[in-house]
Amino acid sequence: MYDLASKCSVLLAKDFVHSAFTVILNEEIRNSRSLYVEMNQTVITIYPRLKISKMYNFSFTEENCQVLDQSLENSTMNSRQGINKIEVSDQKGVSVSCDFQYDLCTVTLAGWHHGVSAGLFGTNDNEAGNEWMVPNGSFTDNVKEFTQSWQVNKCSLVQKKEKPCPITAKQNICKVFFEEPHSLLR
């Protein structure tokens, strides 16, 4: 267990073999965090403090790159949202759930994903000796070096004070495509 002191977005877990899933802890404005979950060309962003989530379909084979308020009926991804909980899972054994009441999120991987992932959550191969692997394949025992190695964007420890502007729906879509750290178009 360790505390993330930096104000940076970090890669928690990613399937580096089949690219089946990606989980990123994003830093938002006003010391808030969101959880970015990507599975099957679909992205769900979970905002635990706000108790909300947003779902996006980034399939380039269809012309429906839009915000989806409800779960995708034709998708291989399932999402369930209760009063204080949201759970997202796929048919390949990846599950992410957040309990808003306790501010607790979990990532569960089926045996099919044994040893194919890496990130701050480790290598998922039941080997204690390689949990502190950094992206270049070497190892460290320094917490700061370990957490900084999995940062997904350039950032500073000093937060800029900005006045938030009201964002329209169209501006929000542009932000997702061109400003989000995980966007391929950034």
UniProtKB/TrEMBL annotation:
Annotated ranges, domain VWFD: 1-166
InterPro entries given in the database record: VWF_type-D
Name of the protein: APLP protein
Organism: Calcarius ornatus
